[in-house]
Amino acid sequence: MNAARKVPVVDAQGVVPAHGYRSLVVVLLSPLAFALVFASWTIFAVLGVELKGALGFGEVQFAVLLAMPMFTGGLAALPMALLAKRIGGRRVMIGCLLLIGPLLWGLSQSRDYGNFLLAGAGLGLGAGSLAAGLVYVATLCPRRHAGLALGLYGAGMLGAGLTYFLLPLISQAYGWPAAPKLYLLPIGLVTLLLWLFADDEAHADALPATKGRRQALSSRPLRPWREWLPPPAVWRLALYYSFFYGAFVALALWLPAYLVAHYALSLKSAALWALLFTLPGGLGQILGGALADRRDFRDLRWWVSACVMVCLFVLSYPDFTMQIHGVHGDLSLRFSMPLGGFVALLAVMGLAMGVGKGSLMCLLYREYADDMARAGGLALALGGLFAGLLPLMFVVGNEWIGVRTAGFMFLYAALAVCMLTMLWDRRTRPGGSA
Fold this sequence. Notes:
Layout: H1 22-41, H2 43-55, H3 59-87, H4 89-109, H5 113-124, H6 127-140, H7 146-154, H8 159-174, H9 184-197, H10 211-219, H11 232-263, H12 267-294, H13 300-315, E1 320-326, E2 329-335, H14 339-368, H15 372-401, H16 406-428
């Protein structure tokens, strides 16, 4: 006689609550998957500088190569998040990680620009793992510590540090084709751990087809396609998040090349200096999520935005010489940002961006926990598309305007528009809160 199959208890949101070790497994393995995906994106940040000399890439080609993973990742984020809600985040994460492995191997075999672009576009599909992991963590994390859990997940951007530290050494010792193979074993290991130890989140749609459930599903009307789009309020918060996410990702990819060109550093030294931007960014995301668990940090983004704006204002100044005709003769002033000052501003800005990302993602969860697939997926989609636009804007400043710091000027203008939008929205919404 077969034992009766036990039907899980479903909460008000249609999700089976997580108990025991499942939350811990999700919180630990999901950031590792995020870190490996992000590390695979930043391969071009390090290798691209070497490939420019070895294969004769131009600045525009290099910018397009950097932008390709972010652009395709932005396009894939929302559909993959919705797919994760339907079939389970763990399954989508495993599928995307399995996709990245052959692409990394193909990247090591590439020798012409077209193949690199195709590999970069394929790596961008790994954003499906990021979006699915966000849905996965939001579904199974402890609700009292959701901000901390989401902050730990977002801190997977620290995977860029792995690229910055190891890839120059691997490339110098064995040649650049060996560098992409570095991630094959860790990706395979994390995929295996997810398959063995992580459970699928059980939604109401995935429960056994009991008589009551069949009647409920048969009576449920089909949703029009317009209802799959996020509501306007989600677009507003996703727009705010997209600046911090997109600007951070784009700068993480662009900084090694910028430091090599502007300060005449070696690739290894430039990559290590760039760590001082990504590390505070990852730690700031954990801090922002943890703080948002304790109180409503809805207004925190104003302070974070002001801090980032000040840093961008100073970073936007190019080297210049000014001659002033004084009463007792001419005075000459010269400004040149030293490397130490540049990196210090980057560290402060990275920390502020991390706090902004962590607190805003917690705010998205707090207001749309029952719809994180659409809310979080849209935030990652807009952030990925914005990040894909930035390398092209940076190269426009370098090649067409002739000012290397024009990229920081563009970020300053984008943040100003974002803050004006927040101010307008705060004044027009009932109660004056945004």
